[in-house]
Amino acid sequence: MKKIRSFLVTILFCFLFIVCFTYREDIVNFVMSSAVQNKQVALPNDSNEANFNNYEFGFVKETDEFHVKNKQDILNVIYTILNHGINDFTFYCDKDYKNCTDDLGEISRDQVLLSTINNFVSPYNSYERVYFKITSYGEVNMSIDKLYSDEEIRSIESKIAEFETVNIKDNMSVRDKIKAFHDYLINNSIYDQERAKAIEDGNDIEGNNSHKANGPLIDGIALCSGYSDAMKIYLDKLGIPNYKISNSNHIWNLVNLDGEWLHLDLTWDDPVTTDGSNILLDRFFLITTDELHKLDSTGHNYNSVYYPEA
Predict the structure, then answer these.
(1) What architecture is domain 150-295?
(2) Domain spans of the chain?
(3) Cβ-Cβ contacts under 8 Å for 50 (sequence gap 6 or more)
């Protein structure tokens, strides 16, 4: 009897081993999926709150739910991670979100969509490169290489403080402060035609900062992204709801002033001239969408799904 029992136990053990070996990936995924559904996720305590934007936007929103249930949840999580200046973060797919992996793959490949989310966060927290690692059981790791180094941020902050000491008075209105910074950037920088042409030809210039805020503020040269980054940093310092608005060829600022969303384009207020003279305009300074399109109906097109405030 003992021999029979021992034989049956051996058979049962072998059977279980074969089943576990045959379906080992499915079993691991089931166990891991069950585990991640109960995992508590929160933002780390060392997130970069100094550059956090506490604004409400139509396209993406802050979230504290890191078990995503749909595509919009993913976008909100990506925005939240960037907005808090986090370099590495892990979130999870909800067990009932069957298309999670496919949607994440689609989002990770959509550079226009990802760069659009970048437009809503502080330039200091924006990414130069972003990476996603997605497992089959719904764990998603997002890691970020920042666009600005700590040294660059210190230099930019020092330059803005210098500007404020010389140009900003206590009795100035918010509009006047924005106009002062607008004029300062344009008067102290020129549009980087050489690099713009190189980018157009597919031969970007290495080591040039004209695409960042230190371009117009420190180096005296700027592309539209350099102008708009510098302006966004200053608008954030003033505590004014704003973001960058872009299309495939251009980027500028959208500003909420006194409850109205207005366009602000330093690039087009600093036109390139044939004789090299430096011209300061204010045609694109805090204007409505109707006024913008009357001035230019092609160069300032944008996706209204991304930028409903405009």
Answers:
(1) Roll (3.10)
(2) 2-37, 49-146, 150-295
(3) 85
